[in-house]
Write a structure and sequence with these properties.
The chain contains 4 helices and 18 strands. It is an alpha+beta fold and about 325 residues long. Strands 1, 2, 4, 5, 6, 8 and 9 form a 7-stranded antiparallel beta sheet that branches. Strands 10, 11, 13, 14, 15, 17 and 18 form a 7-stranded antiparallel beta sheet that branches. A two-stranded antiparallel ribbon has the order 3-7.
């Protein structure tokens, strides 16, 4: 059952043991030491050469970008990082702050300097991504934007995908993105917006708990309420906001477990019910599986919905 928390499952860890071999002859030790020193010098020189090559490529790409801008009759701002930024539509409000922004929502089109398109968002379907998960040049560019703004980023390879790009992008390629910043905020703000939209789209009215969870009690039940430490017997169905079910009890079956061993949302939700009570509970991701998700079943930062019937406790 994917609602069990990581704390409820015993974690195993291993330690790597490093064993050295004793050499009996001093001459062998001297030979090994000399070899290691020589190897270190070779590696050091390789690093110097690699850095030199990277700097040379960087300068070449700066010249290519300058020529591209000149040929297209474009005026761009050059960031100290080496990426170029063209503001095509000024947005409104404040710019993104890295210390208070988790997620950004945007439309985009990505293409190479020869115009070859390699990726884009679907029309009317902006994507939401972790700010810190974006390539460096994209982070620098989008931080200059305001909500509703549009811009073009021209990013040298060292700030893009480097020598290990995804399919469709050549190694060490300059990439260009046309970007529209739809919005930005924290994960909590994003989750709350998702939940409120789900409620509106499905004509549902819910109460908001101080934890950020939303809930609808359809039948309160009778007697006392369960506690966060109760061992409960329940029927339930868990699903996403697209109504795809990821887990449920079926054919009248029940599940029994201690609330102390499940995700936070359950420990908050079930005590709102009495024996025989039923409700629907919408968990923001921080009360579910957060940024790690759960295996291949629950994606990272997923809002979860549970229909729960408290049979007994």
């Amino acid at each position: 059952m994917p609602y069990f928390s990581a704390e409820f499952v015993q974690q195993l860890s291993t330690q790597s043991l490093f064993t050295g071999f004793q050499l009996k002859q001093r001459t062998m030790i001297q030979r090994i030491t000399s070899f290691m020193l020589l190897l270190s010098l070779i590696m050091f020189n390789a690093c110097i050469n690699l850095t030199s090559k990277e700097e040379e490529r960087f300068e070449e790409q700066q010249a290519i970008i300058e020529k591209y801008l000149s040929d297209k009759g474009l005026t761009a701002q050059k960031d100290p990082s080496g990426m170029y930024y063209i503001n095509t539509l000024e947005g409104t409000g404040k710019s993104i702050r890295f210390d208070s922004t988790d997620l950004v929502t945007f439309n985009y089109r990505g293409y190479l300097i020869d115009g070859t398109e390699f990726d884009k968002s679907e029309a009317g379907k902006p994507i939401t991504a972790s700010l810190r998960g974006l390539i460096s040049g994209f982070q620098v560019g989008i931080a200059k934007m305001k909500k509703g703004g549009k811009a073009t980023f021209i990013i040298p390879s060292d700030l893009a995908y480097g020598s290990n790009p995804p399919q469709g992008i050549p190694s060490n390629a300059i990439v260009i993105f046309d970007v529209e910043l739809v919005g930005f905020g924290t994960q909590a703000e994003n989750d709350d917006e998702i939940i409120r939209k789900y409620l509106t789209d499905n004509s549902l009215t819910a109460e908001k708990h101080s934890s950020g969870m939303y809930y609808i009690i359809s039948e309160p039940g009778t007697g006392d309420n369960a506690s966060a430490n109760s061992v409960v017997t329940v029927k339930y169905k868990g699903y996403f906001t697209d109504k795809k079910v990821f887990d449920e009890t079926k054919n009248g079956a029940v599940a029994q477990f201690p609330l102390s061993g499940v995700i936070s949302g359950w420990r908050i939700a079930v005590p709102l019910l009495k024996k025989g009570g039923k409700g629907t509970f919408l968990f923001p991701s921080r009360l579910a599986y957060g940024p790690t998700g759960s295996g291949n079943v629950i994606p990272a930062n997923a809002v979860l919905i549970f229909d729960i019937e408290l049979v007994s406790f």
